[in-house]
Design the sequence.
């Protein structure tokens, strides 16, 4: 979460707590409810920022996995190519030996 958004959300939450306290102290349910609403909005914004951060981390992890998988496939492909070359060479030698007899 960006520092600026975190500060704004904290400020909104504290302001909401103050409004709620003032509303309770004065018996003004409208102000009390407004304070609760402000706190809920701040909490919701915090949650949204956390979801956004989690999404970015998942995206980053997915990119790393993709790179690792591509490298492993490349390595496996190279090994398979080498093994196939050896097998073809061996088969060619066997065929040549058959015709020598």
Sequence:
């Amino acid at each position: 979460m960006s520092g600026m958004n975190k500060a704004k959300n904290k400020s909104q939450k504290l302001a909401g707590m103050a409004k709620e306290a003032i509303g309770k102290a004065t018996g003004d349910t409208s102000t009390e409810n407004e304070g609760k609403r402000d706190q809920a909005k701040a909490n919701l914004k915090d949650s949204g920022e956390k979801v956004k951060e989690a999404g970015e981390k998942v995206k980053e992890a997915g990119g790393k996995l993709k790179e690792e998988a591509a490298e492993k496939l490349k390595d496996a492909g190279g090994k398979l190519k080498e093994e196939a070359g050896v097998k073809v060479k061996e088969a060619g030698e066997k065929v040549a030996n058959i015709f020598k007899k």
About this structure: The chain has two helices and no strands. The chain has one domain: 3-100. Residues 3-100 form one domain. The first helix runs from residue 3 to 26.
